[in-house]
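Weekly sync, protein design subgroup
Attendees: M.S., D.O., the rotation student, P.L. (late)

Item 1: inverse folding check
M.S. brought a backbone from last month's batch and wanted to see whether the design step gives back something sensible before we order anything. D.O. pointed out we never logged the input encoding, so this time it goes straight into the notes. Structure tokens as presented (215 positions):
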């Protein structure tokens, strides 16, 4: 069973392209949208708790090293923790794919609590200019809004292609999925350098690849 959980937030809207691409390629999945209200948060958690073991759960949204977030509506509902580090046991015996900032650290620190079958996470994924400005190293590199948009497109492209290849035969396991995404990111990095002459994009993609973890 495949479940996609996506937090409804203006800044994560671009990730729906992955959802639509999977749907257009006839991948069958449950879609859980975590809207900016308490009821939606609770409904999502109840759904996760009822999933059979060894399901594949894909989470698309925001995260930190100690939690993943639900939906947000600016000015009306501030995003809140959907699952905190100490509650990661809700994913016990599942195959968990967290496309969220600092989810690699969350997976590492909660591994004994979560007891997932396999889990893939990522490091920082700066998809907003504020995230660039708050990172001294990235801010000094002169990354522009145009580069951020290219990075967002590259995230959608590589993750979609990786998942499509994985879903052809899930018995290949998450080790295959991670390796295949690595391959796709390497190709996209080469394109950014050799064809587009965009070192900043290449650096963002390299960091994405380098920070990805499998547990």
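Designed sequence read out in the meeting:
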């Amino acid at each position: 069973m495949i479940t996609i959980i996506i937090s409804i937030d203006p800044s994560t809207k671009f990730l729906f392209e992955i959802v639509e691409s999977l749907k257009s390629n006839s991948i069958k999945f449950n879609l859980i949208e975590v809207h900016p209200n308490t009821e939606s948060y609770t409904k999502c958690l109840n759904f996760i708790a009822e999933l059979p073991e060894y399901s594949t759960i894909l989470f698309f949204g925001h995260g930190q090293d100690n939690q993943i977030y639900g939906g947000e509506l600016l000015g009306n509902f501030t995003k809140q923790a959907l699952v905190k580090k100490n509650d990661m046991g809700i994913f016990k015996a599942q195959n968990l794919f967290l496309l969220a900032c600092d989810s690699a650290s969350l997976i590492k620190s909660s591994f004994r609590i979560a007891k997932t079958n396999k889990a893939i996470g990522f490091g920082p994924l700066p998809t907003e200019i504020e995230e660039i400005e708050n990172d001294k190293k990235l801010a000094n590199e002169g990354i522009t809004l145009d580069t951020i948009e290219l990075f967002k497109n590259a995230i959608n492209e590589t993750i979609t292609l990786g998942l499509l290849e994985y879903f052809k035969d899930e018995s290949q396991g998450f080790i295959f999925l991670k390796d295949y995404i690595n391959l796709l990111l390497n190709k996209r990095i080469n394109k950014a350098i050799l064809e587009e002459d965009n070192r900043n994009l290449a650096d963002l993609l390299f960091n994405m690849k380098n920070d990805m973890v499998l547990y």
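Discussion: The two ends are 20 Å apart (CA to CA). The chain has eight helices and nine strands.
Action: P.L. to compare against the previous round before Friday.
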